[in-house]
Design goal:
The chain is 33% helix and 33% strand. By secondary structure, it is α+β, with helices and mostly antiparallel strands. The longest helix is centred in the last third of the chain and has 18 residues.
Amino acid sequence: MSAAPARRFAEELASFGGKKVTVETVDGKRYEGIALGIQENLSIILGSLEGEERAYKIAIGGHAVKEIRLVEKPFDLRALADSISRTFPGLVRYREDIGAIIVMDKIKVTESGVVEGTGPSADKVRQIYDDYIRTLKKSPKEQLQAI
């Protein structure tokens, strides 16, 4: 595998971290919980397990993993970047490689919110982020009405 696809695989796999996943093992067992750690060989540590396999944490070796499914919808940073771009046209860069949006080369936004930057511009970006999060929490019908 060349470097670019291998890097992309590692980035995609890393995006499962902290998210709710279902893991099926080669012997047919299913585990659902939060992916706390995951390696490229698919070894995974799950926390907050649900179902009959309730436990605080479990580690599953990559040799036993048949598949890992992302259960929760990932945060759409690209859509948030588009929202910010409407207020700051030409000043927004979406950096998929680092999972961040950079505004005016001084404000950094992740799915957690504004993590770097201060001042009136950062406050405006924070407001756009908060509005975006409120929109996500609305029902699909309410989301369409907001558009």
